[in-house]
Structure formats: C-alpha cells, structure tokens
Specification:
11 strands, nine-stranded mixed β-sheet, alpha+beta, 2 domains, two-stranded antiparallel sheet
Length: about 200
C-alpha cells in the first residue's frame, strides 16, 4: 500500500525511535512529536500502517509497535537434520532447535534442514546452508520442495507433468529425478535460507 507523506513520516519516526531505544514510542509520544490534537489521529495512522503491513501492533503493550522492517524477533523451529541437495539421503530426525528471524516465517508450521551436496548451487543453495521449510503436502510447478522418494529425502524444484513428477536440480552436471506421481511425497516448501560464514 502506498503511503502519504504524513503516514511515511509517522512510520519513519517509529522506526527511528525503535532503532535508537530498542523499544517503540507510546501513542502519547507520537501525538506530542507530531502535535496531533488527539490520540484518535495517532490510532488512525497506526491502524492504516498495520493494515498495510508496515507495522506490527501488539495491542496488549503500551510500547507494542514494531515496524516490519526492524522486526528483531526470532522464533525457535526444529532443525530436523540433513537433506540432500544431490543424491537423496535419509533425513535424520533429531530435535535440535534453531533461531530464525520471524519475517522468514509466515503462517503454518516450519522446520529447518541442513543442506548437503551441490545439486541446488545454481539457485544459491549451498552445502552447509540451513533451508527453512514450511510444512505442506502440495506444491506448484517451479517451487523448491522437500520431497520423499523411496524413503529418502531431497531438496529440488518440483514439476508435475501429465503422467509423472520431475524433481529438477539447479546444477547442469545433474539430471532430474523422474518418478510416477504416487512415488513422490511432498513434505514442505522452501521459504528461506540461512547461511553462516
């Protein structure tokens, strides 16, 4: 949603305030800063910025405003082991937890897998990266999925053709995995990537 000049000024003020103080201004402080006649004006701005996705508002907190761009919050999700970006390997089920920035996670259940192999390197997914996966059992053509084939798990681009499913690597030295529809189980969709140097 496009912002008016004033709406952008209010958002910028909140963003700057959070950066400097580590917490958000109160509605009263916003009112005083801009010289608004009532708190109602402040609430109108907050409502518009929240609806437009520019601001998150925890209504249970006096300092509950958080610009979407400086969302520092993170969430713990399970790190379920390794996934092959190459020849399918068994996903190792373990229960380590990993902290992930909230902005990477939308609605639904998420988990993380450590990438092994080079088959997705042309998509920028490298050996040792942590793939953030949204748990779901359906996929659209072209999406990067966690697929289980013959009890082995792999990370590939999904393509459903008329009579078969193709799981494409992003590495010109490797061939797609071609299978019948029933032999492939989708376990999730890649929604983010974490890399440590």
């Amino acid at each position: 949603m496009a912002l008016t000049k004033k709406q952008k000024e209010v958002l910028d003020f909140i963003t700057e305030y959070v950066r400097e103080n580590g917490y958000s201004p109160t509605q009263k402080e916003i009112q005083e800063h801009f010289g608004f006649k009532s708190l109602g004006s402040v609430q109108d701005y907050i409502k518009y910025l929240t609806t437009g996705g520019h601001l998150n508002n925890d209504s249970h907190s006096v300092r509950g405003l958080m610009p979407s761009t400086v969302q520092q919050n993170s969430e713990e999700i399970p790190l379920l082991g390794n996934i092959a970006a190459g020849v399918p390997i068994e996903a190792i089920e373990n229960t380590d937890m990993i902290s992930v920035p909230v902005h990477m996670l939308g609605k639904g259940t998420h988990y993380a897998l450590k990438v092994k192999g080079e088959s997705m390197k042309n998509d920028g997914i490298l050996n040792g990266d942590i793939a953030i996966i949204k748990h779901q059992t359906q996929a659209e053509n072209g999406q990067i999925v966690v697929a289980v084939v013959d009890n082995e798990t792999t990370l590939k681009r999904f393509f459903k053709k008329s009579k078969q499913i193709e799981l494409h690597p992003a590495n010109e030295t490797m061939k797609p995995i071609v299978i019948k529809d029933k032999e492939c189980e989708i376990r999730g969709l890649m929604v983010g990537l974490i890399r440590t140097y």
